[in-house]
Amino acid sequence: MARILRTKDILTAASKHLHYELWMLQSSASTQPQGSPSHVVNNALLETIALHSRVILDFLYDDNPRTDDVNAIDYISNWREIRPDKPKDLDEIDRRVGKEVAHLTYARLDVDPALKGWDVQKLASTVSELMGFFIARCRKDLLSSEWKV
Question: 49-53, 54-58, 75-79, 98-102: lowest mean pLDDT where?
Fold first, then answer.
């Protein structure tokens, strides 16, 4: 099914929300305390980083978005041809966020404690680099003033 073509005003307005996702990811990653994995602030920041990462990765890599999902292809028509390959170390983000954070699942019972950790700095850095690639190729008039580009 073909994507609905959005107006410049709608894309610019939606880009404010995209900016928010990246800002929350980067801000949370830069303020995450080093401490006990059971510490409530640490967990809240980890969950925030995980969820915002997944939102951005869906924006960049979901090839079958719902009609009301904001997607990179709405901004760059040949995005799927020019985008970088999704880094292999990010392949598990969608599943992990779904099974370990966003939904209460029995799969959580099977998570090996040794594999439960997240390298949030690397995750935030990689996702930020991917967004930088997108922003560098996006028409600036489609981005809200928050982007400062």
Answer: 98-102
Residue 131 CA to residue 10 CA, distance in Å, equals 20
Q: Please give the structure tokens belonging to residue 41.
A: 């602030």
**8 Å CB contact between 19 and 144:** yes
Q: Is residue 3 part of a domain?
A: no
Tell me the residue range of the domain where 77 lies: 8-147
Give, as one character, the DSSP assignment of residue 69: S
Give domain status of residue 1, yes or no.
no
Q: What proportion of the chain, given as a percentage, has pLDDT over 90?
A: 68
CA distances from 141 to 9, 18, 20, 75, 147 (A): 9, 15, 18, 10, 11
Residue type, 102: A
3-state SS assignment for residue 143:
coil
In a domain, 132, yes or no: yes
**Mean pLDDT, the chain, as a whole number?**
91
